[in-house]
Write a structure and sequence with these properties.
heterodimer; A: alpha+beta; Thiol Ester Dehydrase, Chain A; globular
């Protein structure tokens, strides 16, 4: 398990764009299960949508992408390099809306991981219900 | 064996979003078809999944034409057989 202090050592993102609060499971190169707690206080809820708060799908993708970085980081011994991550393609289907109070649980498993890039299977759920799922690919380049 | 070429052509066409007819056996991926490194990796992963084979990442550099990919796929299929 990783707490926020360990997460910020891996992820380059910061407030208000750090979308992972905790890592529950970490099998280097094989599986990551991470959590994003969704609070009514999230800034985006004030506009998305007024009176009807729904987490934007692109931010669910962002949370999946950040969890993918954690998988990649541990699979490829990226700690020694100063890497920048660029998303390549996204194929994600959204199944249910995510609302204030939900705990988004993200599971990432590799489809193909190489030195400078990866394709992963991403799945997000709230409780027992799958809310989004698909594939994400990204590259990691030395800055 | 012709089937492998057609199957891989369809797989490539879907990933790079082109008409399969445009993907001539010797069309150059980067110059003629606009394939980038991420697409190449997706093609590699797609072939691995389809034929249940493992292709090492070093082979990505040889993903230059449909012909070259089909040759690589055949090479690793015969290794597995």
């Amino acid at each position: 398990m990783l707490n926020y202090q360990e997460i910020v050592k891996i992820l380059p993102q910061r407030y208000p764009f750090l979308m992972i609060d905790r890592v529950l499971e970490l099998e280097p190169g094989k599986k990551v299960v991470a959590v994003k707690n969704v609070s009514y206080n999230e800034e985006f809820f004030s506009g998305h949508f007024p009176g009807q708060p729904i987490m934007p799908g692109v931010l669910i993708i962002e949370a999946m992408a950040q969890a993918s970085i954690i998988l990649f980081y541990n699979a490829k011994d990226a700690a020694k390099k100063n890497l920048s991550y660029y998303i390549g393609s996204v194929k994600v289907r959204f199944l249910h809306p995510v609302m204030p109070g939900d705990q988004l649980k993200i599971t990432i498993e590799p489809i193909k991981v190489i030195s400078g890039a990866a394709i992963v299977k991403a799945q997000a759920s709230v409780g027992e219900k799958e809310v989004a799922g698909g594939e994400i690919s990204f590259v990691a380049k030395e800055a | 064996m012709q089937d492998i070429e057609n199957d891989i052509r369809s797989l490539v066409a879907e990933i790079i979003e082109k008409d399969p007819a445009q993907i001539k056996p010797d069309a150059r991926f980067v110059e003629d078809l606009g394939v980038d490194s991420m697409m190449a990796l997706e093609i590699l992963a797609g072939i691995e999944k389809k034929y249940k084979i493992a292709i090492p990442e070093e082979k990505l550099a040889e993903f230059k034409t449909l012909d070259s990919i089909v040759a690589i796929a055949r090479e690793y299929l015969s290794k597995n057989a």
